[in-house]
Amino acid sequence: MSNYKSIIEQYEVDVYPRRDIVIVKGKGARLWDENGKEFIDMASGISVANIGHANDKLVEAISNQAATLITCANTFYNDTKAKFLEKLFSITPRNLTKAFLTNSGTEAIEAAIKFARLNTKKSKFIAAMKGFHGRTYGALSATFKKEYREGFEPLVPGFSFVPFNNFEKLAEAVDSDTAGIILEIVQGEGGINLGQKEYFEKVRKLCDENGILLIIDEIQTGFCRTGKMFAIEHVGIEADMMTIAKSMAGGFPMGALLCSEKIKVEKSKHGSTFGGNPLACAAGYASIEFMVEEKLWEQAEAKGKYFKNKLESFELSKVREIRVLGLMIGIELKDKSQPVIIELLEKGIVSLPAGTTVLRLLPPLVISYEDLDEVLKVLYEVLK
């Protein structure tokens, strides 16, 4: 037995609820621990490994770029960044025309908050109950869960929360100082709660009528996860700003804030040392190219429907509701999800919670139907 676990426990700040295994390798939708035990990954590093672990195209791109140029200050132009931006904007919503490149989703949210205040000259934001947008101060201020917020107050002032999918309550919260409304199309951490098309259409109209910027958080839902390249396509509206990250570069740390023509930012008003570095841009280019070549949004839609239909055909006494959009799967249980997650791990399935009672499954989009069948078999054994 290695001492990897004890070394990490000795030196790393203990903020993560650990699973008692040491993961050392991944390929496609499979993971291996230090003892050679194999797992089917139904988490993807929280919707990060959409193109699969150790994707050959990604490995080659990172290797080639690392041998050429790893870092480049944003005060210079760079060829790899130019190629990446062109590739990125070939797949994003057409009204979004500029990007601020970051290293993570929470940084993208921070930029959105700053840009909204800068452009509207207003200070308040409305977010949704059960929403999650990150852990840094601005992003945390837009995040609902009290356990994440406690001990860090006072947070950034001016944030209020309303029930998701309840337009009347949202409209009541708007006032003359509302700069932005921050929403997910599907609430990931909140329990795989699906946004309603009519709700988002009304929100878009409300923003237009009141000079409010609509910020859509696609950090977990973006890049084919929901059966579309971006989840906003399901509701048919346009965002003023959209945050993306997680699977953007196939697992390499990368994020971005995408902006419409409404957003104007002067030089030196914001910046990032590592955001949009050549290595990240090479990884992002390869990842997006793979998604498009393999039509991963179509794979996610087909596999998600297959999984949902099979799961709903079972008699599962422990299940209250099943919510699925593409390969974003939430199984709401009648009791706490943590014991089920532990049992699944013992049976070789890596899964996630989403709140207290929801089992969240976010497999790599390249997962095989054979692996999905194996997961379904284990789920039946555990949940019947």
Essential attributes:
single chain; 384 residues; alpha/beta; Aspartate Aminotransferase, domain 1; Aspartate Aminotransferase, domain 2; seven-stranded mixed β-sheet; four-stranded mixed β-sheet; 14 helices; 37% helix; 20% strand
How does this model look, in words?
There is one protein chain. The chain has 384 residues and is of the alpha/beta class. The chain has two domains: 4-55 and 298-383, Aspartate Aminotransferase, domain 1 (Alpha-Beta Complex), CATH 3.90.1150.10; 56-294, Aspartate Aminotransferase, domain 2 (3-Layer(aba) Sandwich), CATH 3.40.640. It has 14 helices and 17 strands. It has helices at residues 4-11, 44-47, 56-66, 79-88, 105-120, 137-141, 146-149, 167-173, 197-210, 232-235, 278-294, 296-312, 338-346, 369-383, and strands at 23-27, 30-33, 38-41, 96-102, 124-128, 159-162, 178-184, 186-187, 193-194, 213-217, 241-244, 255-260, 319-325, 328-333, 349-350, 352-353, 358-361. The strands form four sheets. It has a seven-stranded mixed β-sheet with strand order 4-12-11-10-7-5-6, sandwiched between helices. It has a four-stranded mixed β-sheet with strand order 1-2-3-15. β8 (186-187) and β9 form a beta hairpin. It is globular, with a radius of gyration of 21 Å. The mean pLDDT is 97.
